[in-house]
Amino acid sequence: MTPEKCNVLITGDISFFYDSNALWSNHLPSNLRIILINNSGGGIFKIIEGPASTEQLEKYFEAKHSFSAEHLCKAFEVEYASAQSPEEIETQMEQFFHISETGRPKLLEIFTPSNENHLVLQKFFHQLTIS
Ligand SMILES: Cc1ncc(C[n+]2csc(CCOP(=O)(O)OP(=O)(O)O)c2C)c(N)n1
């Protein structure tokens, strides 16, 4: 990792919670930043043909939940912030990339609506194919 620059991980909530024990490390650098997109489940399965058309989609594939990373961050002494709107993201960003005096890494949890998230992603994929 380059010490003078922040190194950013952008991850989904299911991926983050699965691997959250990675935060249990004595060597987390102060320039680590995690941007967690929390859409309350594995939204990708809503756009994968097989899982998307089964009755088990929400319960077993998407694994819908209402957890937040706040308490995990407390446990591992990762500085936590959250945002629910573009305006809040902008406000949080002012501080997010500053190195903290505590020397601890930071996580920004961005909450997005699970019923819209996959539609936005599909639109984005579509834009990529036509541009
Ligand atoms: C390292 C790893 N672990 C597990 C998987 C299996 N996997 C594929 S999609 C997925 C869920 C993704 O959900 P989330 O991280 O919430 O992102 P979203 O689909 O909502 O954008 C998982 C766990 C994987 N691809 N790679």
Q: Layout of SSEs?
A:
Blueprint (H helix, E strand, L loop, with lengths): L6 E6 H6 L13 E7 L10 H4 L4 H5 L8 H7 L2 E5 L2 H11 L9 E6 L2 H17 L1
Parallel strand pairs: 1-2, 2-4, 3-4
Bound molecules: thiamine diphosphate.
Written overview of the protein:
This protein is an alpha/beta fold and 131 residues long. The chain has one domain (7-130): 3-Layer(aba) Sandwich (Rossmann fold). Helix content is 38%, strand content 18%. It is globular.
Compute the number of strand runs. 4
Report the average pLDDT across residues.
94
Percent helix: 25-40%
> In this structure, how is the largest beta sheet organized?
4 strands, parallel
CATH superfamily: Thiamin diphosphate (ThDP)-binding fold, Pyr/PP domains
C-alpha geometry: globular
Name of the CATH architecture: 3-Layer(aba) Sandwich
Name of the CATH class: Alpha Beta
CATH topology name, in short, is: Rossmann fold
Unreliable runs: none
Strand content: 15-25%
Total tally of structural domains = 1
Strand order of the largest sheet: 1-2-4-3
**Treating each run of at least 4 consecutive H or I residues as one helix, how many helices?**
6
Distance between the termini: 34 Å
